[in-house]
Amino acid sequence: MKLTVLGCHSPYPPVDGAGPGYLLTHAGVNVLLDCGSGVVSKLGKYVDPQSGRLAAVVLSHLHADHFCDLLVLRYAHMVAMHKGEVAPLAVYCPDEPETERTVIPFRHTLALHTIDECSRFALSDMKFSFYRTKHVYPCYAVRVEARGRSLVYTGDTAWDEGLIDFAMLADVLLVEACFTEQKKGENPAQHMSARDCGALAEHAMVGKLILTHLPPTGDSADLLAEAQTVFSGDAALAFSGLALEL
Predict the structure, then answer these.
(1) Which pLDDT belongs to residue 188?
(2) Residues 218, 9: contact at Cβ < 8 Å?
(3) Across the beta sheet with 126-132, what order do the strands follow?
(4) Using H for helix, E for strand and C for coil, what is the string for 191-224?
(5) What is the mean pLDDT of residues 212-241?
(6) How far is the C-alpha of 6 from the C-alpha of 27, rounded, in Å?
(7) Distance between CA 93 and CA 78 in Å, rounded?
(8) Which residue range is the domain that position 130 belongs to?
(9) Number of structural domains in the chain
(10) 11: DSSP letter
(11) What's the whole-number mean pLDDT along residues 193-207?
(12) Residue 217: Cβ-neighbour burial (10 angstroms; 0-12, 13-18, 19+)
């Protein structure tokens, strides 16, 4: 299983960057985790969005910075459907908020499936499971397992001890790091500090920690440094084009 980071910035992308979007490839099957601003453009470097070679999109939640480019991707898939025998693109996402969910369907180009904590499905050899996180919108962390290897993506969340068991012994933990502990403040939207990320990785004994959901301005080196004060393993910052073989 291969992870390619397409975008890693929030709440908006910097120049030449993209919002949250992560391509998983295994046994010739391509799955997109989240689809933030600019992700479709980045996706084109690896998978032609008009080719029909994207098997599914999994959305952690329906905040615009995590799904807005799906509204563009559906046009590309419509072109693929017009070219030949391509099925509607499978999209797995929460069923609320209703306002955001209702804007997703378009001319039968998408096949919507609702996810919750009980959801389990497989795409090729990739097995997907979910955990409800602590966030202002319904949001689900995603665990993907294939041939004995595993990736956990937290989506958006405040600190939650339940995530430790969900992420336990993952080969790669892809986790949002919005700010340092000092800048955490009241945190009304419910996000994790870099120290939270490091603590989660340490308690879950993961193989590699990747910090994502990075601010679009400033130097994120302080986020990595803070995470490394509590995580003793391998840690790095996400960037567009980062590729890892699990």
Answers:
(1) 84
(2) no
(3) 120-123, 126-132, 140-146, 149-153, 172-176, 208-212, 234-237
(4) CCEHHHHHHHHHHHCCCEEEEECECCCCCCHHHH
(5) 96
(6) 20
(7) 20
(8) 2-245
(9) 1
(10) S
(11) 98
(12) exposed
In this structure, are residues 30 and 47 in contact, taking their beta carbons and an 8 Å threshold? yes
Taking every pair of C-alpha atoms in the chain, what is the biggest distance, in angstroms? 54
Interior angle at CA 190, CA 239 and CA 167, nearest 5: 60
Q: Which helix H or strand E contains 152, and what residues bound it?
A: strand 149-153
Environment class of 114 (CB within 10 Å of its CB; exposed 0-12, middle 13-18, buried 19+): exposed
Encoding tokens for residue 52? Answer: 């029909």
Q: Find all residues with CB under 8 Å of 69, minimum gap 6, and list them.
A: 19, 21, 35, 36, 37, 38, 39, 40
| Whether residue 189 has pLDDT greater than 90 | no
* pLDDT higher than 80, residue 67: yes
Residue with tokens 């999994």, as numbered in its chain: 58
Residues 78 and 73: their CA atoms lie apart, in Å, by 9
Residue 103: other Cβ atoms inside 10 A:
12
The rounded Cα 20 to chain-centroid distance in angstroms is 6
Given this model, what pLDDT does residue 134 score? Answer: 97
